[in-house]
């Protein structure tokens, strides 16, 4: 099992000024930051990042949203990182997220849900490689 995961603070959360509070909650939960950047995806890049969802009805909306503003991308390290991070952020739909989770506190809807968290070790590696070169991770 890998000890790393990948996250993004999404455009809804950066736009509302939640970045600091979200990163604070992540660090206090025991994750350490191994790479981080503040950036903005083009539609093409967002489409490529979410290519696995290409056939889903919400794909167009997802690509539009994820390229609509700035994001903060990061690689995080902790024992059992993927599963523990998904617990910390809560359910994809904030209406179903547990009290105290990042999405419960900061997300508005299933589409604009404040943060991304990788769903497997394999995807964590792929997603981290999408954003960061070897020189940008420590
Ligand atoms: P994320 O974990 O980043 O990965 C896929 C994203 O698709 C997910 O977060 C949601 O933001 C988005 N998503 C999932 N289901 C829906 C939906 N029904 N409508 C709009 N967006 C969705």
Automatic annotation (TrEMBL):
CDD domains on file: NDPk_I
Cofactor(s) this protein cannot do without: Mg(2+)
Classification via PROSITE patterns: NDPK_LIKE (PS51374)
Residue ranges constituting the Nucleoside diphosphate kinase-like domain according to the UniProt record: 2-136
Chain residues that bind ATP: 10, 58, 86, 92, 103, 113
Reactions listed under catalytic activity: a ribonucleoside 5'-diphosphate + ATP = a ribonucleoside 5'-triphosphate + ADP; a 2'-deoxyribonucleoside 5'-diphosphate + ATP = a 2'-deoxyribonucleoside 5'-triphosphate + ADP
A molecular function (GO) term: nucleoside diphosphate kinase activity
EC number assigned by the record: 2.7.4.6
Location in the cell: Cytoplasm
Gene3D superfamilies, per the entry: Nucleoside diphosphate kinase-like domain
Residues of the active site: 116 (pros-phosphohistidine intermediate)
Top-level EC class as recorded in UniProt: transferase
Pfam families for this protein: NDK
Organism domain of life: Bacteria
Keyword field: ATP-binding, Cytoplasm, Kinase, Magnesium, Metal-binding, Nucleotide metabolism, Nucleotide-binding, Phosphoprotein, Transferase
Subunit structure: Homotetramer.
Family of the protein in this entry: Belongs to the NDK family.
Its biological purpose: Major role in the synthesis of nucleoside triphosphates other than ATP. The ATP gamma phosphate is transferred to the NDP beta phosphate via a ping-pong mechanism, using a phosphorylated active-site intermediate.
PANTHER family, A to Z: NUCLEOSIDE DIPHOSPHATE KINASE, NUCLEOSIDE DIPHOSPHATE KINASE DDB_G0292928-RELATED
Protein name: Nucleoside diphosphate kinase
Source species taxonomy: Bacteria, Pseudomonadati, Bacteroidota, Chitinophagia, Chitinophagales
Gene field: ndk
């Amino acid at each position: 099992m890998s000890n790393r995961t990948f996250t993004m603070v999404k455009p809804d959360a950066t736009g509302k000024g939640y970045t600091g509070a979200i990163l604070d909650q992540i660090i206090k939960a025991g994750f350490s930051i191994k790479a981080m950047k503040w950036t903005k995806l083009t539609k093409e890049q967002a489409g490529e990042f979410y290519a696995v969802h290409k056939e889903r009805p919400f794909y167009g909306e997802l690509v539009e949203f994820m390229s609509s503003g700035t994001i903060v991308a990061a690689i995080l390290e902790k024992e059992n990182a993927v599963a523990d991070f998904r617990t910390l952020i809560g359910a994809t739909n904030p209406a179903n997220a547990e009290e105290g989770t990042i999405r419960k506190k900061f997300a508005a809807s299933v589409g604009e849900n404040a943060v991304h968290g990788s769903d497997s070790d394999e995807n964590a590696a792929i997603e981290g490689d999408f954003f960061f070169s070897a020189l940008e991770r420590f």
